[in-house]
Amino acid sequence: MKSSEYYINIGYGIETKVVVALALLGNTAVLVVLLLAPGRISVQRFLMANLSWADLCMGLYLLMVATQDLVSLGSYFNYAIDWQLGWGCQIAGFLTVFASELSVFTLAVITGERWYALTRAIHLTKRLTLWGPAQLMAFGWFMAILLGALPLLGVSSYSKTSICLPMELNSGGAVAYLVFLLLFNGVAFLLVACAYWQMYRAVAGHGGGGAAPAASSADTAIAKKMALLVFTDFACWAPVAFFGLTAVGGMPLIGVTDSKILLVFFYPLNACCNPYLYAILTKQYRRDLLLLLSRDCQLAQRRVESRFVTFVSNGPLRHKQSTWQVFETNL
């Protein structure tokens, strides 16, 4: 291996670790709070839990690929056949397609829910219940599992590349499969972008032409946040779609080595950003986290009090009530 390739691999390994850590830690933190926080499961919490699970699966895929790269650094040819034809690559490939399509579908549903809530906010009888989004997500799970399983059933293949993506172009079915994935993601992105544009227009035009400076400032903040959400979706989808379409058209512009860079910098961008943009940086998440921590603290305090009462009632201090009074005062 050339020294330049060695340093490129070292840099790739460091960047991969950062991306894997962001995806795994961020989505795990979101899932823990959403599933364990007290209170009823709202539509928003339900959808965010689905999104976090999908992005966590993407993090697991990146972890598997990064681990294989680390093990085979400098001598991949010794491991290529066993890895690409083994179950490890098949599982990694299924995880990435399942996670990618479920994440895209869930983002579209979340955007639709936000659009519906904003445009129908004044109609109390038209509020969304959990039943509708649950049906949509059941369909999304079915579709994501089906698309992830097709290469395992002979439509395309996860074994053509070391990064276990379905890049086979030797049959009409494989090409149609790849084109469908690219078109599905592209249509979903356009729907999300259009919905956010309509939401911004609805919010910005709510106050009429004579908006106050405070309202104008709030509109600017909303516009920036919406632009950031759309930009991350575009930055994740556009490079993958562009190079994927050129490959389908018989004019591949990058090889496997360059596709690894694309894999690290763009492909998992949503998996890294979604938990922070949609959950961790929101007031609702911080509120749920505080409720969860306060509940755990109360449970811990009750256990301590219960053990102390048992100790006092059974031990030599059972007649010394002043000790219990001092303990209560210190609490």
Automatic annotation (TrEMBL):
GO terms for MF: G protein-coupled peptide receptor activity; protein-hormone receptor activity
Family: Belongs to the G-protein coupled receptor 1 family.
Transmembrane intervals: 20-39, 46-65, 85-110, 130-154, 174-197, 234-255, 261-281
Keyword Transmembrane included in the entry's annotation: yes
Keyword terms of this UniProt record: Leucine-rich repeat, Membrane, Receptor, Repeat, Transmembrane, Transmembrane helix
Residue ranges constituting the G-protein coupled receptors family 1 profile domain according to the UniProt record: 26-278
Species: Orchesella cincta (Springtail)
GO biological process: adenylate cyclase-activating G protein-coupled receptor signaling pathway; hormone-mediated signaling pathway
PANTHER family, sorted: GLYCOPROTEIN HORMONE RECEPTOR, LP13728P
Protein name, entry field: Lutropin-choriogonadotropic hormone receptor
GO CC list: plasma membrane
Subcellular localization, as worded in the UniProt entry: Membrane
PROSITE patterns with a match to the protein in the record: G_PROTEIN_RECEP_F1_2
Keyword check for DNA damage: no
InterPro entries: GPCR_Rhodpsn, GPCR_Rhodpsn_7TM, Gphrmn_rcpt_fam
